[in-house]
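Annotated sample (chain length 528).
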Amino acid sequence: MKISWFSCLLLLLVLSSSSWSTLADNHQEFIQCLSHSNQTYYTPNNSSFSSIIQFSIQNLRFNTTETPKPLVIVTPVSESEVQRVILCAKKTAMHVRVRSAGHDYEGLSYVSEVSFVIVDLINLRTINVDVNDKSAWVEAGSTIGELYYRIAEKSKTLGFPAGVCPTVGVGGHFSGGGYGTMMRKYGLSADNIVDARLVDATGRILDRASMGEDLFWAIRGGGGNTFGLVLSWKIKLLDVPEKVTVFTLDKTLEQNLTKLIHKWQNVAPRFHEDLFIRIIIRRVDSSDQGGNNKQTIVASFNSLFFGGIDRLLPIMQENFPELGLRREDCIEMSWIESIMYFAGFPTDGPLDVLLSRVQLSTRYFKAKSDYVYQPIPEGGLEGIWRFFFEDEAQSSYMILTPYGGRMDEILPSDIPFPHRAGNLYKIQHLVYWDEEGEEVAERHISWIRRLYSYMAPFVSMFPRAAYVNYRDLDIGMNNKKGYTSYMQAKVWGMKYFKNNFDRLVHVKTKVDPSNFFWNEQSIPSLTS
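Output written by the structure step:
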């Protein structure tokens, strides 16, 4: 039987109308369900809807008129309200995205191709520090800046290993591992989590004892918005000296930058665990001796040392004399002042700047990550510099973070984060731009993809490893419409989690068989 084009069009319109009708019904049912608990929520009809969603967007790529918007934003103020949101979403078949502070590199905490609601945890920010027990309970909507501030309120000799950007939310940061300048001394944020509270896919509120060790293992590094909605974390606070030392030394191509980085690759992962030196590489404008403008590459050797200058200098002289570190390059300060230093704030300024959730600047950007097992030869490094002289690299960065120390001592299977012994350092590739438009975005994204391809012979292989908190959909993703297959997910899952991927799938299948918590790079359930 032949079917006319008109009949096909009519059928398509009927199906589309039915789909939109079902969506509208689900949407209204979800709101009605929420209304029984007097929760605060926002729809596109609210005048403050746009400001609420934009407040925590950190990447302008996902703040355009074409970016899919949620049907509802819910801002719960208690565990029971979060629980109600999950139960209502489950009942009405609404897809949920969870936002702690909006730093997901691909916007997955607040963007979805499937109609969705956002659970924004901005009001869940209570932090209780117990100095005697050397622990703290931290609600998942808190930022790491707020956590650092609350620790410093209570103690000058306790700290916690997390990131250098104070506006990052602990919800996502801890879920993907979380690292910072203390990683060689104490490992990751997730290595120092001792308990958690979450709402699972059935709406139950669980702690470590009631969720079981498999689920507790999975949420510490297995990626956010996958196994449940974490409400709060209990973390172990760690000893820091009364005085630490910091320094930042800039070296250019004309100052033997290539040879210094080549040497750094060999020594930085083998330094004493008290010493952390990362490298931030970028292109800058400079002047030659004749006053003529030119471009060069600069590498900032950016360091935290757990001790004083008198102890640091002999270590550097013995292991890395080529850097030329001098006493006058070093500054002694408290641990919390070092947090200010790495965040780019004046170290003698008020600490309450750490409480601000407002990013100093938001730009368009794309990021990628790599792990390095063998030193990149000088010729390979010189090839990288050629990319940095291209037009699209005007605001590009390569950040090299050394491993070794405590990171070598923790087994790859202790938590889902597998990147341990054998890694010399991690690379974060970043490119920023400020102009609007798809053509501009494509040029910059193409640039970082070409750099990433160039790096392939010099970094980890089989799989080419990546860091889940530096989300990159280029390495693979699930079906955008909600279905997740094991083989599809394994493409990207092995890169993030290596041999831990299958265990994560097993846990997901057990705790969320219907794949209620889903995103473009969430662990799949085998029964969904």
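Annotation: The longest strand covers residues 275-287.
Annotation: The longest helix spans residues 5-35.
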